[in-house]
Amino acid sequence: MISKTPETAKAPEMSKNPDGATADPIEAVYPLTPVQEGMLYHTVAEPGSGVYVEQLGFRAGAEFRSEAFRRAVEAVMGRHPILRTGFSWERREEPLQVVLRECRLPVKQQDWSERSEQEVSESFEKLLAADRRRGFDLSKPPALRLRILRLSGDGYLCLLSYHHILLDAWSLALVFGEILSHYRQGKGAPADSLPPVRPFSDFVHWLQERDPERERAFWRQHLADLDGPTRLPLAGGEVRPEQAYGDLQGSLSAESTAALNDLATAHGLTQAVVAQAAWALVLAAFSGSDDLL
């Protein structure tokens, strides 16, 4: 069961209420999901690598209200506990995620209005790289931040960075939609018009209640007919360790990209799933088998 156990968590410093009582800044404490544990491991093991640092950049016109946008992001942070979550792992057998009752969004504003379009493009690429290297201290929420750059002609360039341990692509689309709803409404944020939020702890709780033996039995039965992993017929025999992997980059035309977007959207899929399906077809063609592992 999930319980609020701040004694076992790396709690933030307590503050005092006006009447002298101690105010508990912690809203909830519970375990991580297996995927979150993997992300936490790689983040801690590879500092400065930019692993799992996600970035959403967008341009805005002269009418952009930076303070209103910050308030909109913080309003959505108030709705979603996961956006106020930090992680505690040092000197404990199992890492925990710690939800704060309140969390302020880190915002940095800069004036790039004297820079040419070429200079803005080059500077922004450097900013993206530095932002990824900076990463996040997951023990100090929130694991998201906002950068607002003022451009010439009174336009703006914004960068919302966050750690993947908080959001995936589907979640980001929903969260950003809520941010825009709050931003458009200004101070009269549409809290009542937005659907109720199920906290991330519900998902953690659901995972904890699942029977691992029953799931292992399902996969044993499902994979019973497979006699081993799918192998590609590689020319030249065995691959040496130093040749085991590498990077290969390519690009698609605008027409092909649009077709893939339409395909993914029509089936309610992400681009990643489409890519995995294509890889499965490649494996099937080379291995001669319809069963791939």
The main pleated sheet reads as: 4 strands, mixed
Low-confidence stretches: 1-18
| Structure summary, number of beta strands | 9
Arithmetic mean pLDDT: 87
N/C terminus separation:
34 Å
* Rg from Cα: 23 Å
Order of helices and strands: EEEHEHEEEHEEHHHHH
Name the shape in a single word: globular
Helical stretch count? 8
Please give the order of strands in the largest beta sheet: 4-9-8-7
Structural class from helices and strands? Answer: alpha+beta
Strand content: 15-25%
Q: In which range does the helix fraction lie?
A: 25-40%
Fold and architecture overview:
The chain is α+β, with helices and mostly antiparallel strands and 293 residues long. 38% of the residues lie in helices and 16% in strands. The chain is built from 8 helices and 9 strands. It has helices at 34-45, 66-79, 117-134, 169-185, 200-209, 212-222, 254-266, 271-287; strands at 15-16, 22-23, 26-31, 53-60, 85-88, 96-100, 107-111, 144-150, 156-163. It has a 4-stranded mixed sheet, with helices on one face. A 3-stranded antiparallel sheet has the order 3-6-5, with no helix packed on it. Strands 1-2 form a two-stranded antiparallel ribbon. Strand 1 and strand 2 (22-23) form a beta hairpin. Helix 2 crosses helix 4 (169-185). The chain is globular. Mean pLDDT is 87; it is low at 1-18.
Short recap of the structure:
With 293 residues, the protein is an alpha+beta fold. Helices cover 38% and strands 16% of the residues. Helix 2 crosses helix 4 (169-185).
